[in-house]
Amino acid sequence: MAFRGPRVWLWRWRRNPLKRRSDTVEAWVVLGAWTLTVLCGVLAGWTAARSVEQSLARERVEWRPVAGRLTERAPGKLTVRSSERVWAEVGWTGPDGSAHTGHARVVPGSAVGTAVTVWTDRRGRMVTEPATAAQARVRAMFVGGLAGVTVAALPLAGCRYVRGRMERRRMDRWGVEWALFDAVRGRSTG
Q1: What order of strands is seen across the sheet that includes strand 86-93?
Q2: What's the pLDDT tens digit per position in 126-148?
Q3: FRET pair for 129, CA 20 to 30 Å: which of 37, 113, 154, 168?
Q4: Which sequence ranges are marked TM in the entry (predicted)?
Q5: CA-CA distances (angstroms) from residue 30 to 9, 42, 164, 170?
Q6: CB 148, CB 52: distance < 8 Å
């Protein structure tokens, strides 16, 4: 294992007679990539989170609970456990007075005509219960974080690609220079 001296931060930005032009270019590529990563990630995450939170807030305002009735007996036996639910057909009247039917989760064994709360949109179509403000914040943070990380990965991947190309080019140049050096000395490296 080779001994390495103490790590020097920002070594590519210091004056050094052995520093190549490609070192400076690579330093700028890395700086640009990290700047883009942070800016794009934060901006994309914030935008996605804000969009999700606004959408869920709009649902809380527009969606309304409507009283519905079971049109068929719910499958299963009526139990004490209220957390258990089964699917059954429910009927309700829309805001325009038209009759609607759909399937909702209800207590097992419920009789025909049992009152059930159904959530509908402006047109009277059945929808799920809207997310609470706390649930909306959690969803928005999750979606925003996922969008931010995904978008931030793009500049990092681009930086890795560009640095790989620069490294291959640097190695090719070294190969040419070693060949010239060997020609001067009268030996071959291969």
Answers
A1: 99-106, 86-93, 64-70, 115-120, 126-127
A2: 999 999 999 999 999 999 999 99
A3: 113
A4: 140-162
A5: 14, 18, 12, 17
A6: no
Q: How far apart are CA 37 and CA 123, in angstroms?
A: 43
Spatial distance between the Cα atoms of 161 and 29, rounded to a whole number of angstroms: 11
More confident residue, 137 or 75: 137
CA–CA distance, 172 with 175 (Å, rounded to integer): 5
Give CA–CA dist 181/17, Å, rounded.
21
When pLDDT is cut at 50, 70 and 90, the band that residue 102 belongs to is very high
Q: Looking at residue 186, what is its pLDDT?
A: 75
Using CA atoms, how far apart are residues 168 and 33, in angstroms rounded to an integer?
19
